[in-house]
Amino acid sequence: MRSWVVITGCSTGIGRALVPLCRAAGWGVVATARRREALADLPPGEDLLLLELDVTDAASIAAAASACADLPLRALVNNAGYGQVGPLELIRPEELRAQFETNVIGLHEMTRAFLPLLRRQPGARILQVASMLGRLSIPLAGPYNASKHAVVALAESLRLEVGGEVAIVLVEPGAIRTAFRDTLAKVWGDLPERARGTRYELVIARYLAARKEQAERFALSAEDCARRLLIALNARKPPRRLVVGWDAYWIGKLKALLPASWWERLLRRLYGLA
């Protein structure tokens, strides 16, 4: 019988790239997105179930779990999320709260809802997609940094609690090539206006330019990242932590080696905050 995987955040990025890879590898895929029409171009088949799912809505999560109740579900990939960018002193409490509702609370609610279904299958696993920014923090991404640090903590605690029944894999990607500017425009609101006339106006402009250059030169494609996740999905003994991308590996090593004052000075210079 075909094993099934639920993947959140399949409208774009890693989630979208993972869907065809899983299907080609013999998995049945429950592809989810907040708007079902965002999944309409996925080729239909008996190995694909499309679900409208908002991870910030408990009723939506419960409906998704109910729709999957009769499937031989062997994996959950908690991938849905976004990045709130901006200087912390300009970030409103409701913006920070929204960041956590999606990246942390939504991930936790998905895990709680699907654990009973996963426990029925031997070799089941949950992939919790965090980030290298769950290990270290950078300027102008405080809400995102904090949310991914929380995902790391939740995954490590969950592994201690249920790891004997369901494997918990913490995924820590580095930079991924995505539609960063398009996403940023949706979540930023009036933050650029709040920054106007402050020391952050030029800093934000430099940050955007640097992100674009870094993405073009160094970032992994969503497809390359998804291939690494597929290996963890198929592995007989999945890894506890899956670090994806050279930057995720080496920047973490650099931070561990440098004195804290040198590391902070380096980041301030890189981001124009010196």
Strand and helix layout:
Elements (H helix, E strand, L loop, with lengths): L3 E4 L5 H12 L3 E6 L14 E5 L5 H10 L5 E6 L14 H26 L6 E5 L12 H21 L4 E7 L6 H9 L2 H5 L4 H18 L4 H13 L6 E4 L1 H12 L2 H11 L4
Parallel strand pairs: 1-2, 1-4, 2-3, 4-5, 5-6, 6-7
Helix pairs in contact: 1-8, 2-3, 3-4
Describe the structure.
- The chain is α/β, with parallel strands linked by helices and 274 residues long.
- It has a single domain, classed as NAD(P)-binding Rossmann-like Domain (Rossmann fold, 3-Layer(aba) Sandwich), CATH 3.40.50.
- It has 10 helices and 7 strands.
- The chain has helices spanning 13-24, 58-67, 93-118, 142-162, 180-188, 191-195, 200-217, 222-234, 246-257, 260-270; strands spanning 4-7, 28-33, 48-52, 73-78, 125-129, 167-173, 241-244.
- It has a 7-stranded parallel β-sheet with strand order 3-2-1-4-5-6-7, with helices on both faces.
- Strand 4 (73-78), helix 3 and strand 5 form a beta-alpha-beta unit.
- The longest helix is centred in the middle third of the chain and has 26 residues, at 93-118.
- The protein is globular and about 60 Å long.
- The termini are far apart.
Give short descriptive properties of this protein:
Rossmann fold, 274 residues, 10 helices, 7 strands, seven-stranded parallel β-sheet, alpha/beta
For the record, the count of structural domains works out to: 1
Order of helices and strands: EHEEHEHEHEHHHHEHH
Biggest β-sheet description: 7 strands, parallel
Structural class: alpha/beta
Based on the structure given, which CATH architecture is correct? 3-Layer(aba) Sandwich
Which value, in Å, is the CA radius of gyration?
Answer: 19 Å
The H-level CATH homologous superfamily, spelled out, is NAD(P)-binding Rossmann-like Domain
β-strand number: 7
- Compute the separation of the termini in Å: 59 Å
Mean pLDDT reading: 92
Residue fraction in strands: 5-15%
- Shape label: globular
Helix content: 40-55%
